[in-house]
TrEMBL record:
One of its GO terms (molecular function) is metal-dependent deubiquitinase activity. Gene3D superfamilies: Cytidine Deaminase, domain 2 (3.40.140.10). Belongs to the peptidase M67C family. This is MPN domain-containing protein. It comes from Opuntia streptacantha.
Length: 219
């Protein structure tokens, strides 16, 4: 079980046998499949399945109260590959359908101290299906502006058809729509100019069972 101490790093690693291997995350749902012309130039992101499981444990209390939980993924860059080595759980305000990070300077301090790239974020949908809401799309946008490879992991424990998804805005289609949108809160988005979906399931993510990571729970 993970213990949580504010502003304290918890070093974790998955124990892997020689039979384990790095697995490629492929599209699990045709609703989100999309041929992105930029996908071939994206750097791969490696992430531990244990990190995702540990985040679910961290979020469990909120999930039981039908409250979302969010965290930021920090990564190192080695040999043109990103390795998600840090999970930062910020102070936050949550509802059943949204989550807002607070005191973001604390996140930036950890990233700067460890020379980490903000390669995305992870959050729960406690009682909703696995998808990207309009708020999620706007949250994802600045991550992809900073790091084009950035991902959004959605965990939906009550969705019996797809319990998690790893998404990104399509580029340029989704990125353009969100960049030009000035709406706040939950709202519909129009179609992209080329008719492509606004977001897609990622094809540049790999589950790496040997990846060591740290967790900072700042709440």
């Amino acid at each position: 079980m993970v213990k949580h101490f504010p502003s304290t790093a918890i070093s974790c690693t998955e124990t892997a046998s020689y039979a384990t291997h790095i697995s490629h995350v492929s599209s699990a749902d045709s609703r989100y499949e999309c041929s992105d012309p930029t996908s071939h130039v994206l750097k791969d992101i490696h992430i531990s399945a244990q990190l995702i499981e540990d985040f679910l444990q961290i979020a469990a209390d909120n999930t039981n109260k039908d409250l979302e939980t969010c965290a930021v993924l920090g990564a190192s860059l080695e040999d043109e590959k990103f390795y998600a080595t840090t999970l930062i759980v910020p102070k936050q305000e949550s509802t059943c359908s949204s989550c807002q990070a607070l005191h973001e300077e604390e996140i930036f301090n950890i990233q700067n101290d460890r020379s980490l790239f903000p390669v995305g974020w992870i959050h729960t949908h406690p009682s909703q299906s696995c998808f990207m809401s309009s708020i999620d799309l706007h949250t994802q946008y600045p991550y992809q502006v900073m790091v084009p490879e950035a991902i959004a992991i959605v965990l939906a424990p009550t969705d019996t058809t797809q319990s998690y998804g790893i998404f990104r805005l399509t580029d340029p289609s989704g990125m353009t729509v969100i960049r030009e949108c000035r709406e706040k809160g939950f709202h519909p988005h129009g179609d992209s100019s080329d008719g492509r979906p606004l977001y897609e399931q990622c094809s540049h993510v790999y589950i790496n069972p040997n990846l060591r990571f740290e967790i900072f729970d700042l709440r």
